[in-house]
Amino acid sequence: VSRIVAVTQFLAKQNIPFRGHDEGGSSHNQGNFLECLNLLKQFDPFLKSYSAPSHSTYLSPASQNEIIECCAEEVTANIVRELKEAGMFSVMADEARDGNTEQLAICVRYVAEDTVKECLLAITTLMEFDAESITAIEEQLVHHTIDGVAVMSGAVGGVQARFKTNHPEAIFVHCYAHQLNLVLCHTCQAIPEARDLFDLLQSVYSFFSVSLVNHHKFRDVQNQLGLQPSELVQLSKTRWSSQLRSVNAILENLPAVLQCLSSINNSMAVGLHAKLSRFSTVYLLVMLKTFLSVTENLHKYLQCETVDLAKAFENKGAVCGNVHR
Description:
This protein is mainly alpha-helical.
């Protein structure tokens, strides 16, 4: 059993799936869990000679799940113990969709042994995504016998107000990285030229990523021009830092993109080439690279596990100073 637990811990730590498509005795690949144990058998004298009773091998999917659950309970219990010893902590909650299943991820942040820690406490399924259903945050904290809560926004009828009714001591802080993301997003959306440019970048990305023929041609042109092979970057509405990566990718590969578009004889390529080769487009790319680079460091810092309030204000001041200049 100790060897089975060790394999379970190893696979969990490395975030490796346990199961195989065919775990039967005649299978050439029984999945990571069973294959790891088969590997141990080659070098472990005990496993070589041990023959488990057919009714208690502890290798079935049900047994694997039970061991995984036991390990999870031990990890969670350790987190809860450190939380209680810390005395003060914050709770971070956000949507974590898995396919068609709406989930809520609940993380805790606290100080243990002079070290800032951020740990995943629970993931719970949501039947609806509204203020009433997100009280699952409190349910998870009560389940783990933790006193005190953090809340989400919605000062009047949202989760924040509902939690403050039961826990007046709770202090709400919206994710600053998310706030910065929203500011940048709405700022650029309010500028028609910037909005059109990002639509163009997304179209260029789709043109070269959807078609393998276009993608291979793009790679060939990169090689011909002596450019470092690299990919264009898809834009994201939730992670604004990807916009800077997309702008940088286009600027670094602009000669290859233009040459490739000019060599493809279809209306889409002709239209993209005409828009991308304009002086105003290139000027906007350079301007947005400068603007977004100013906020990039602050955006990354606000997502750090070791983020410090004073340091964050310093970064904010540096950003404001650079923007004014």
